[in-house]
Amino acid sequence: MEIFLSICVGLGIAAATGFRIFLPMLVGNIASLLGWYHFSDSFQWMGSWTAFAILSTATVAEIVAYYVPFLDNLLDKIALPLAIGAGTLVSTSVMSDQMAEPLKWGLGLVAGGGAAGLIHAAMGMLRLGSSAGTAGTANPIVTTGENGAAATVSILSFIIPIVMAGLVLLLLYFILKKMGKYFSK
pLDDT tens digits for 44-61? Predict the structure, then answer.
């Protein structure tokens, strides 16, 4: 059961990196510092005070930058590969030590990185549409929604991991279905 729950936590928190790269890592760091969750052995550094300082700074910078119209669109393009990497890293970091390292990394890349990348791509398309349709004036609303989603999904992934993994899978299905319709035109 520990392996299954760690995979569910990993999928949920990785999906949250599709909304914001550093906020889910900061949530995991805080959970570890408070003793609510422990990273796998090779990722103990993610629960350190040094990581807290770095992740806090990066989170604030990322959140502020996304409130600047049109800079947010540029960040979306740059951040896609970073979101995939962050999703892979954060999902692998919470997986059980009972799993073999190659399996953890493979699952982290495919499930965690894939979920983060797909969600980030969908949010980038939404932001691009918002920029085109409102000249960027609605982008702060999109940004606020992304910030809220990143925080909520991250926190709830540690509290109710099975439910959140199920919701993430439904969200990914919805995104794939919408993208399929969009690109089949």
Answer: 999 999 999 999 999 999
Helices (H), 17-160: 22-33, 49-65, 71-94, 101-107, 114-134, 139-159
What is the pTM for the complete model shown? 0.90
**CB-count burial class (<10 Å; 0-12, 13-18, 19+) for 14:** buried
List, as one string, the DSSP characters of 143-170. HHHHHHHHHHHHHHHHHSHHHHHHHHHH
DSSP secondary structure code for residue 68 in this structure: S
Phi-psi category of residue 136: left, alpha or beta, with phi > 0 → left and psi -120 to 50 → alpha: left
Q: Say which residues have a Cβ less than 8 Å from residue 173's Cβ, sequence separation at least 6.
A: none
